[in-house]
Amino acid sequence: MRVKLTSKLVESLKPREKPYNVVDSELRGFLVRVEPSGVKSYFARYCVNGRQTQMKIADAAVKTPAEARDKAKKIMGEAVDGKDPVTEKRARRIHMLGAYLDKEYGPKYLAHKKSGGASYKRIKSCFKDFLMRKLDDPTLHNALVNWRSRRLSDGKDPATVNRDLGTLRTAFSWALDQGLIKANPMAKIKPLKLDKSPKVRYLDEQEERRLLDALDTREERNRAGRDSFNLWRRERGLEPLPDLRACAFADYLKPMVLISLCTGMRRGEVFNLEWADVDFARSTVTVRGAVAKTGTTRHIPLNDLAMGTLQGWRAQTDGAGLVFPAHSRKATKTPPADDTPSWVDATRKKTKTPGAFDNVNTAWRMLLDKEHANISAFRWHDMRHHFASKLVMAGVDLNTVRDLLGHTDLKMTVRYAHLAPQAKAAAVQKIVFAQSNVVAFPATKPGSRE
Fold it and tell me: How are strands ordered across the β-sheet holding 51-59?
């Protein structure tokens, strides 16, 4: 519908079941939109670089059609000169890094990424001194170079510094793609060179034995504690709690550790593992793409220890839903701060199955303590390295190890190659030449110039 927009006409427009537009006959591209709620707004529709877009001018209750038409002319004039008023308005609204993260990059880009919330928090934490800087600040490049030098001087690992800068670089790249800045201030900041084959932390035989013994000791301590508590309840005529000595495991930690050691699954993959992912008939476990870091589903065979662990654990649970539900634990997560956007927590919920563990840090640190396993500098993730290292040292080829770990690139798996030097030696011995007679050269006499 095209008709000259006047105050009387706009006031007479009635809402319908769906939104509709009334285009001005006097200025092509100027229109009023009527929402089902009855709200009426003026828009200017224009084309920049072959792409049609539109920009809201004002609420019809605030401006008259004549005022809005004049504003529309100005907007369309800028578009004719090759400027995009919408993009420029966005750039003015979020010209500071902090505002850009909160109003544009976070809700429009990171909200759709599996680790979007973590990336947002990383930038806000690591670069808090930059949040009030303009996106196009010409001094940003040098300031970030100095920031990197300070982090390294403070003892931060180069890989961590690279990861932090990479997260921020992606944010600036998206701003560049959106036309919010004319150049990426981090374009010339190259990542620090890293050791392509870093040292892999895995357990030696003594440490592995101490870890398993510590798990058994912890189990017995929990069972003894339950025995004592049930005795106290019986003496007072109370119903005793289930007898832990009738169960395969006292609690979640031992089966969780054994599954991690036997499958090499990441912590989040173990936390979100469901009984439907375990195929007892085929002795395999499936890591769903929805919870895998790479987003790709993979299948891991289960050895006898893993099978026995899962069978014993299932016998004392309901065998449905999560393999390791956290419902028996009190919530330890602190609620998000008031200024944290709601979408940040939403991204975490996308990849976290309801009722799943967030962490097992306290129990894990106590297990590795000097009074128990006496193992230092060994993270939960290092059990994944231990799994891969044992495979390589047993002669398993790197391609198979890569498949089991779910690496998308063999470069990630090559870090374990040094653990199988015998494989390289055996490979060289397989070289056979047509002439197999060894030519013996005479030894050079002492003092000879030959």
Answer: 20-23, 30-34, 40-48, 51-59
Q: Taking Cα atoms as reference points, which of 104, 143, 111 lies closest to residue 127? A: 143
pLDDT in tens, 22-31: 999 989 889 9
Terminal CA-CA length for the chain: 102
Give the start-end residues of each E strand in 278-329.
Answer: 278-279, 284-287, 298-301
Total count of residues recorded for the chain: 450
H or E element in which residue 41 lies: strand 40-48
Q: Are 382 and 202 in contact (CB under 8 A)?
A: yes
- Give the SS3 label for residue 230: helix
Fold of 7-92: Double Stranded RNA Binding Domain (3.30.160)
Would you state the pLDDT for residue 438?
A: 56
Judge contact between 33 and 18, C-beta under 8 A. Answer: no
Q: What is the CATH number of domain 203-443?
A: 1.10.443.10
Please name which of 284, 309, 303 lies closest in space to residue 212, comparing C-alpha atoms: 309
Tens digits of residue pLDDT in 78-87: 887 777 777 7
